[in-house]
Design brief:
single chain, five-stranded parallel sheet, 5 strands, 46% helix, 163 residues, alpha/beta, binds 4'-phosphopantetheine, 6 helices, globular
């Protein structure tokens, strides 16, 4: 059975992420969304909030009802081993994303042999980034056409109480 992991910090999940998960689900028999920690970023949402929001977003899409969402407590390669995944799927919005993802892809393969499959982001999502969503929300700007409803609600609540 072909199993892939779509990993990310998902702080919050965006429509761009959802598009990548949807396309991964057409390529692999099983897709597991792994909600991980990115050591180079400080998250706005807690790990539990990020997982809950991802689950809520997937539940709204009938095509994604079978996709599992799980926390990645440590190394991504260890998580891939535990769920039996032979591939990691990541979206690329452009060259800057590739520059960040390429060393991680090589390192993950070095550590465990897991391959990374890159999917080019849809052009309409090329400007959509979790960091920009949070920045817009901090200034009270509109984020509803960038992220699913549960994500928008969680981000607005978090910036109101924590930022
Ligand atoms: O959505 P992001 O922040 O681009 O995702 C990056 C993420 C979370 C997938 C990456 O930081 C990761 O794999 N974290 C888990 C810990 C790990 O395995 N680190 C070594 C990566 S080579």
């Amino acid at each position: 059975m072909s199993i892939a992991v779509c990993p990310g910090s998902f702080d919050p999940i965006t429509f761009g992420h959802l598009d990548i998960v949807r396309r991964a689900a057409r390529l692999f028999e099983v897709v597991v969304v792994g909600v991980a920690r990115n050591a180079s970023k400080s998250a706005l949402l807690t790990p539990d909030e990020r997982i809950e929001v991802v689950r809520g977003a997937l539940a709204e899409d009938p095509d994604l009802a079978a996709v599992r969402v799980e926390p990645v407590p440590g190394l991504l390669v260890e998580f891939c081993r535990q769920v039996g995944a032979s591939a990691v799927v990541k979206g690329l919005r452009g060259g800057a994303d590739f520059d960040g993802e390429h060393p991680m892809a090589l390192m993950n393969r070095h550590l465990s042999g897991v391959e990374t499959v890159f999917l080019p982001a849809e052009q309409r999502y090329a400007h959509v980034a979790s960091s920009l969503v949070k920045d817009i929300a901090r200034y009270g700007g509109p984020i509803d056409d960038l992220v699913p409803p549960a994500a928008a609600e969680a981000v607005r609540a978090a910036v109101a109480h924590r930022a």
